[in-house]
Amino acid sequence: MGRSKANFNAAVPLHDLTQGFGPDVYDNLDKHVASSVLKDIIIRSRNKPSKLSRLHILVPTGSRGVNQGDVGFLDREDAAREGRATMPDGFRLTTRNLPARHLFTTGDLSKWTWNPGKTE
Fold first, then answer.
1. 42-50, long-range: CB within 8 Å, 24+ apart, which pairs?
2. Total domain count, the chain
3. What confidence tens digit (pLDDT) does each residue in 46-97 have?
4. What's the pLDDT band for 2 if we cut at 50, 70, 90?
5. Residue 110: burial class (beta carbons within 10 Å; 0-12, 13-18, 19+)
6. Which residues form the domain of 61?
7. pTM (two decimals)
8. Cβ–Cβ < 8 Å for 57, 72
């Protein structure tokens, strides 16, 4: 398995989930997110486009770097679990601190994509 890339047709920025999930998304995060770590990150990023969050990207063993469009996880444990499940030949996690305005989801709140060029 290689790196995942996102489709940005329906992408929603981390700092404003209401754009894709409706006005009550923050009141109902338990319906969308199981991880308490992820819930905390989402809440702290609300309406703060400059708020930095760590994006943990799975990289096949031997690969280097992180590229625009790479899909990752805000919860390190979610990233590690995904790596163990989908990359049997080995992986490592590359972490980047990125502003909320550069992180987008296409519906699965556990997976986020780095896209500094996307306009909201």
1. 42/14, 42/17, 42/74, 42/109, 45/14, 45/15, 45/100, 46/15, 46/16, 46/17, 47/15, 47/16, 48/15, 48/100, 49/13, 49/15, 49/16, 49/99, 49/100, 49/101, 50/99, 50/100, 50/101
2. 1
3. 999 999 999 999 988 888 777 888 889 999 999 999 999 999 889 999 999 9
4. very low
5. middle
6. 12-114
7. 0.85
8. yes
